[in-house]
């Protein structure tokens, strides 16, 4: 069972929906009234809507230009998408949300902000300068049935930092960082240039380091000595930007579907690939946990915000010297934070950034602030202490079921394929509209290459007419295709599922490998015209 099929498990899906619905009810019943009463959205993020709870897990892919962001996404979904372009220059100049849809199409940014079913309605304040560079691509893709992916413009290097985007790029990144489940930050092993805009982008990710996964891409293009130096420089630079005691995990890889260059650290790249894909694959299972975690973080921030607003309200004079008192209170905000911590036992980590809060307060009328309301605060405390705790058993049951799932093949996750994408595709099923095409269908398309394939097969010394999985794997890895792609080819080729390949199945595997090396997408399931003749009776109509 793969990540693509988790949604078909009614128990897992039921648990996720049950937890999500409970979180939604708790937010609307207990947290939203407090946010409105203390004008939380004027200072922090907008209120949640149904789409924020119901949407699929989202993955934000970001990095400097030419680090392989768009190629990484194509690697995940094994498909081109409208508007994608790859090149050494900055080719992606807009934010693109890749989401599942029955038909392929592009929705422009302004239309997305008025769609209640999409989680992008609160992007409207960033204005037309941003919305003109934001779009949603909907397409029928099995990977996108379980997750959504956000492609971002390449972060400018030092040489291009004077160019203006026309909108607040770090603020947009922070908006997405708050709502996505995973942030993939790519670096190129050939160039590590920490520009001003990259540093500001890091600042936008502050507080969401738990969602961040750093990828050192194109690692097969450098030797081991260079890789060691680049890795050390990257870790040192990240340590200066993210001032946390924990070390960020950096994945070393070459994330694309083309053959990799052979290098001393080839096996390391394969292991790192498996770890990162497993992390992404688990996102649908962990979606409810992430939503609960985000709700708790928001509730803690709301509690601290309520105490700040009520304290400022209490300290304001009734008639005289209001403006001078306001500026004095803003100046003393760090001291006020400390007083609230001591008086109400609010942890220091729950408070917002002091400098940003001071900036927000400058444009506010303190006389309109509300005093502390015990009933609302009691409701908030009940949410944090009792209501959330009651959801933990549901999450634990879901965790048990998740662990009982069999391991998945990477190929199941990557080997997807858009129906109708048949141009120059040797894997396209032949039509059967007339007698001539029926004749073509009866002829196995691999047959004409059999002499070449059989020579390889018998050179591998088959036992009783079959090759073991170990022997086939050893030969497959010499093609330098990613292990995940080879795993998918193995699944397609082992038609009878006995864990070994006979000469026909091996010929099919070589044919698929050659097609992949020529740049074609692999089919998700084996088309009828590729099924070996001796296996057609047994598979019958089950094979598409």
TrEMBL record:
It is a peripheral membrane protein. Gene3D superfamilies: 1.10.268.20, EF-hand, P-loop containing nucleotide triphosphate hydrolases. Pfam families: DUF5600, Dynamin_N, EH, EHD_N. This is EH domain-containing protein 2-like. Its main location: membrane. One of its GO terms (molecular function) is ATP binding. GO terms for biological process: endocytosis; endosomal transport. SMART domains: EH. GO terms for cellular component: endosome membrane; plasma membrane. Residues 449-537 form the EH domain. Keywords: ATP-binding, Calcium, Cell membrane, Endosome, GTP-binding, Membrane, Metal-binding, Nucleotide-binding, Phosphoprotein. Residues 53-284 form the Dynamin-type G domain. Residues 481-516 form the EF-hand domain. The keyword Nucleotide-binding applies.
């Amino acid at each position: 069972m793969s990540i693509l099929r988790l949604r078909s498990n009614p128990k897992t899906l039921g648990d996720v929906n049950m937890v999500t619905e409970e979180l939604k009810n708790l937010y609307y019943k207990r947290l939203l009234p407090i946010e409105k009463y203390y004008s939380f959205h004027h200072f922090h993020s907008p209120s949640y809507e149904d789409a924020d709870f119901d949407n699929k897990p989202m993955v934000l892919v970001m990095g400097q230009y030419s680090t392989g962001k768009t190629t990484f996404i194509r690697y995940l979904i094994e498909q081109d998408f409208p508007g994608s372009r790859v090149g050494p220059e900055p080719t992606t100049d807009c934010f693109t949300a890749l989401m599942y849809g029955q038909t392929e199409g592009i929705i422009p940014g302004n239309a997305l902000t008025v769609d209640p079913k999409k989680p992008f309605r609160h992007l409207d304040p960033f204005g037309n300068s941003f919305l003109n560079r934001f779009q949603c691509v909907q397409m029928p893709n099995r990977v996108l049935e379980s997750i959504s992916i956000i492609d971002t413009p390449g972060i400018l290097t030092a040489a291009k930092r004077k160019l203006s985007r026309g909108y607040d790029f770090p603020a947009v990144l922070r908006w997405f960082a708050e709502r996505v489940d995973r942030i993939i930050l790519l670096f190129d092993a050939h160039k590590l240039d920490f520009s001003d805009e990259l540093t500001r982008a890091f600042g936008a990710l502050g507080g969401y380091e738990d969602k961040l996964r750093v990828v050192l891409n194109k690692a097969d293009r450098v030797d081991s000595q260079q890789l060691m130096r680049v890795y050390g420089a990257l870790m040192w630079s990240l340590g200066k930007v993210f001032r946390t005691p924990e070390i960020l995990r950096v994945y070393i890889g070459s994330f694309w579907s083309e053959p990799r260059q052979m290098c001393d650290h080839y096996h390391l790249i394969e292991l790192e690939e498996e770890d990162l894909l497993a992390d992404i694959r688990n996102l649908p299972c962990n979606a409810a946990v992430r939503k609960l975690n985000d709700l708790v973080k928001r509730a803690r921030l709301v509690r601290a915000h309520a105490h700040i607003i009520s304290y400022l309200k209490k300290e304001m004079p009734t008639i005289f010297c209001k403006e001078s008192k306001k500026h004095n209170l803003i100046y003393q905000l760090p001291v006020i934070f400390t007083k609230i911590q001591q008086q109400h036992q609010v942890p220091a980590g729950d408070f917002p950034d002091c400098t940003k809060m001071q900036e927000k307060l400058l444009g506010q009328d303190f006389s309109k602030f509300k005093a502390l309301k015990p009933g609302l605060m009691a409701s908030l405390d009940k949410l944090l202490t009792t209501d959330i705790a009651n959801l933990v058993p549901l999450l634990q049951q879901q965790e048990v079921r998740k662990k009982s799932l069999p391991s998945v093949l990477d190929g199941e996750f990557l080997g997807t394929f858009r129906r109708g994408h048949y141009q120059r595709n040797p894997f396209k099923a032949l039509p059967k509209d007339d007698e001539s095409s029926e004749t073509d269908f009866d002829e196995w398309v691999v047959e004409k290459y059999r002499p070449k394939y059989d020579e390889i097969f018998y050179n591998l010394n088959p036992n009783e007419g079959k090759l073991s999985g170990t022997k086939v794997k050893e030969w497959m890895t010499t093609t330098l295709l990613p292990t995940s792609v080879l795993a998918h080819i193995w699944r397609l080729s082992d038609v009878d599922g006995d864990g070994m390949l006979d000469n026909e199945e091996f010929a099919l595997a070589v044919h698929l490998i050659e097609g992949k090396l020529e740049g074609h997408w692999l089919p998700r399931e084996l088309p009828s015209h590729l099924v070996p003749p001796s296996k057609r009776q047994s598979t019958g109509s089950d094979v598409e």
